[in-house]
């Protein structure tokens, strides 16, 4: 599986001729480095409804004639916007053509902004994405929580994307513990440096990971690594 980072929490995963994008916040993201028009995928996956994750999902789904996969309430909102959608919920697993998705807990909030109003978008989630014999875990926006140990015990996680920005999610110290609990072999730090409030040093975080025997990948937008 090839993982390409497009800033903030956006990740493109490719394997076996299939590709999916997670949390495609590209327009308005000063660090994305790519236009939604350049995205070619078989599905869009969302961890929750906040605008810096929901992003360009509707445009991308329409352009690629592909489904948006999300927690039920968020999926139904997407469907109301004229796209294909597949609703799931926390703990559920589903096989698609060339990949599998399972939603895990994430401790955060989730809503969609419409004008001056906020629409409830179901529970936030993490995503276990399996393509071939590799599993990538996107934790979404989350605090550190004890059941990360259980997620790590139940799944062989080849790589994980963990937020390190603090303020709105866990910070580097908690993310380091999360990586250990998840037993991840490789870690991509996400959700940092997009805005001044979440400034962190991804390279320093990766150095701390290496001290625990975990390979860190503080990627710049457009850079990739292989599982």
TrEMBL record:
Matching Gene3D superfamilies: Ribonuclease Z/Hydroxyacylglutathione hydrolase-like (3.60.15.10)
Catalytic activities: 3',5'-cyclic CMP + H2O = CMP + H(+); 3',5'-cyclic UMP + H2O = UMP + H(+)
Protein name: UPF0173 metal-dependent hydrolase GRF59_13050
MF GO annotations: hydrolase activity
Keywords: Hydrolase
InterPro entries: Metallo-B-lactamas, RibonucZ/Hydroxyglut_hydro, UPF0173, UPF0173_UPF0282_UlaG_hydrolase
Its job: Counteracts the endogenous Pycsar antiviral defense system. Phosphodiesterase that enables metal-dependent hydrolysis of host cyclic nucleotide Pycsar defense signals such as cCMP and cUMP.
Family (UniProt): Belongs to the UPF0173 family.
Entry keyword Hydrolase: yes
Domain Metallo-beta-lactamase: 7-191
